[in-house]
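[job 4471] stage=fold_predict status=RUNNING
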Amino acid sequence: MAEHHSTQRPIDAHGIIGDLRSAALVDDQGSIDFFCWPEFDSPSIFLSLLDSPAAGIFQLAPVLANARRQQIYLPDSNVLQTRWLGDEAVVEVTDLLAIDEDPQQPPLLVRRVRVVSGRATLHLQCAPRHDYGRAATRARLDGAGVCFEAPGQPGLRLVASQPLHIERDAALAQFTLEQGQGAEFIFGGLEDPRVTGNDSDLHLRRTLKFWRDWIGQSNYRGRWREMVNRSALALKLLTSRRHGSILAAATFGLPESPGGERNWDYRYTWVRDASFTVYAFMRLGFVAEANAYMGWLRGRVSDCHGQPMKLNILYGIDGRQELPESPLPHLSGHGGAQPVRIGNQAYDQVQLDIFGELLDAVYLVNKYGEAISHEGWQHTIKVVDQVCATWQQKDVGIWEMRGEQHHFLHSRLMCWVALDRAIRLASKRSLPAPFARWDQTRQAIYDDIWSQFWDEQRGHFVQHIGSTALDGSMLLMPLVRFVSAKDPRWLATLDAIENSLVRDGMVYRYRNDDSGIDGLPGREGAFAACSFWYVECLARAGRVEQAHLEFEQLLRYANPLGLYAEEFDSHGRHLGNTPQALTHLALISAACFLDRRLSGDKSVWQP
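[job 4471] inference complete, writing structure tokens
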């Protein structure tokens, strides 16, 4: 397809709407330029964000010269409103993916436009392009609607309260509305009986009620309530109502390095996110979501069929294990960043840290949610025994390096967490366990970290054995309670991280230009989750005033809707897939801890 990067909006110029089955990005010019249908990880139907309108787009916008544009969410919801303020008129477009009582229903997109003031002419173009823009989609008129079909692909239909016509297999409309007048457009499956022009009010009311009832359960009452609730709403939007899993992000192919090749598919569920997800949801009072996620995880651990237990790093939302990676060479990429990849080959990597994240999540759910079952404990014993057998092996580490394997500090750390949480859980619940062997292994890992990963000459911990480099994942050492947040050696490491990896509160995962460790050319941006971990480390170390300032700066790097992608560029603009669950999880944790410290509350929530 042709290169039309000038038509692409920046990553942070987008809001997201979703129905817990799929999600769509809406830019601040009224275009839906990313939407996979009918599932989060299905092929796209709108993908101009990664190419041009030729890859699929749904535009709905007024013709208003020099209008100021704004995007807001209707309060306490994931219903998005894009607004134009011009001399001649004020116009608003309201977008939502309807939440239906039946989770099996395919996504239903509702777009409503209203002229708040003045008079405006509006332009609509709906041009779905099936299968990532590879299929030949054909449009045909059908009564008050337009049908879109492609061989072997699910059929789609658009109905409108305004007359539609077809050009180049796209549905078009141009119409003028006076003050107080509106129009509505409903887009969904070809055979979906809900795709009619009569029910947009009902869909809006029902969807608003769902989101407001849900966020109303939040128990966070701190000073950053709006940002914390927005992060919680973003996390909920990334969960699967049918499966209980949670996506790493809603998108694929958005570059971590402008014009570079770090363009991954994040529409899957990483086991690593388990403890962070459970931690965040539990802290805010969303026990049902944490329990549902753990139910999904139990399905992955128990699905062994008598074979040795194998825990993958990531899975499909439905639990499938193989996610082969392939490029989409026909797409020009966001800002020319190629290749655009779908699938994620990291599914077959070895990353020993995931056992620690899994066991941390199991421990937290047992403490604040549902108690572990007999069968669940038997699976846990298998996991811990596997850690005992493998903790001394090399792996690719938390950042899924595509270079050589190493003995990574973070992998060792999380193996220690796995043993520690299992021993704690067995002790508290009086569960049978080989305590002596587990405790011996836990002590061996502890000693190994202090002897092998502490660099006496440089006075800080190192990324992996044989390295002198620092790593943003070290910030988890006090957060998982391996080391005191005020231990002199940890404080020296924190200072070294500050001097080497921190730039205006933005924290880099590692300096790959020094180490060459990740096997890829180019330099990535600062990692947003590490930046929020850094804030929490500062607060736990007693540097509360500095933590407060750094946190406020990070909040300003959110997009206007309070959303974050995976990384920041040197100007604090967004890079990578969006919205990123891990970033919002880390924000919630930092906000909760820092708020209590600033309030003088010593009874900090403890995992």
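[job 4471] summary: The longest helix spans residues 409-429.
[job 4471] exit 0
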